[in-house]
Write a structure and sequence with these properties.
This protein is α/β, with parallel strands linked by helices. It has helices at residues 3-13, 30-33, 39-47, 52-58, 64-87, 113-123, 141-146, 183-201, 227-243, 260-281, and strands spanning 89-91, 130-134, 153-160, 173-177, 205-209, 248-251. It has a six-stranded parallel β-sheet with strand order 1-6-5-2-3-4, sandwiched between helices. Strand 5 (205-209), helix 9 (227-243) and strand 6 (248-251) form a beta-alpha-beta unit. The chain is globular, with a radius of gyration of 17 Å. The structure holds zinc ion.
């Protein structure tokens, strides 16, 4: 999928970001992946020896290139989280693979970058409390399960009730939305919950999954947000956190459609909003 490179190039060519704001992540060592995932799974996936059934559950054909991209995306979320701690706000141009569980991947997700970055930064004593704000249209089931017994990681997922995964996990806060929910109702639900959560948790870092699959034209979404609705959502999340002084690290999450140009535009709203919020508050 060329989406990630296209997004990066678009952000630069459209003037959303300058070349001096770009950072290149490295591939994380296997030990970091194993802060969340079982050794046998990581070894099998990276070595191309995962059995056919487990591979089908992921839904993406294995290749050396995909292993490289997957690991680099995890490295990107780790780097994004560290930049956010230092600078107040940072965005990955990939990431948000929230359906990955410790011993298997699913729904196009192989390793859970959100969970790995969280565990690593905690292990490195860079933070204690984290708030995961997952607004991808699909429930962040892997993340919810991984942190189900961890009181220092609060998982908040707002998603379409009748979408994948059919078997939901229990986040610290789940807001399931009706199929066809539009901008105003969506933003009203968000405003009902997010400010209170931030005040209550006082996180050292907010990890925001800004999936664009709630868009009305998304192939897998089932919600009905407009382009403007997505932009207002991202701006609202970032402003709510940054205004109160909480650092935010963003990942782009899901987004599906045949019109690649339109999809890139949707993902770029996150970076546009982040650039504006950064200049104002950070
Ligand atoms: Zn999704």
């Amino acid at each position: 999928m060329p989406k990630f490179q296209l997004l990066r190039d678009f952000l630069v060519s459209d003037g959303v970001i300058g070349e001096d704001q770009l950072y290149q992540p490295g591939r994380p060592p296997q030990a970091w992946l194993e802060l969340v995932h079982e050794t046998a799974y990581v070894t099998a996936y990276c070595g191309g020896t995962l059995d056919a059934k487990a591979q089908r559950r992921i839904g993406l054909p294995w290749s050396e290139g995909l292993v490289r991209r997957t690991c680099t995306a995890v490295g990107g979320t780790i780097l994004t989280a560290k930049l956010a701690l230092n600078q107040g706000l940072a965005c990955n141009t990939a990431g948000g693979t929230h359906h990955a569980f410790p011993d298997y991947g699913s729904g196009f997700c192989i390793f859970n970058d959100i969970a790995i970055a969280t565990r690593l930064l905690k292990a490195q004593n860079l933070l204690k409390t984290i708030l995961v704000v997952d607004l991808d249209v699909h429930q962040g089931d892997g993340t919810a399960w991984i942190f189900r017994n961890d009181p220092t990681v609060f998982t908040f997922s707002m998603h379409c009730a009748v979408n994948f995964p059919s078997r939901k996990q229990i986040s610290d806060l789940d807001i399931p939305l009706n199929e066809g929910t539009e901008d105003d109702e969506y933003l009203r639900q968000l405003a009902n919950h997010l400010p209170g959560l931030v005040t209550q948790i006082e996180p050292d870092l907010v990890l925001y999954d800004a999936g664009v699959d709630p868009h009305r034209n998304d192939r897998l979404g089932k919600l009905a947000l407009t382009d403007e609705g997505l932009y207002r959502r991202d701006k609202y999340v970032l402003e709510t956190c940054a205004q109160a002084g909480y650092p935010v690290a963003c990942v782009i999450g899901g987004g599906y459609g045949k019109d690649m140009g339109a999809l890139i535009q949707r993902h770029a709203y996150l970076h546009r909003a982040a650039s504006e919020v950064y200049q104002k508050y950070c």
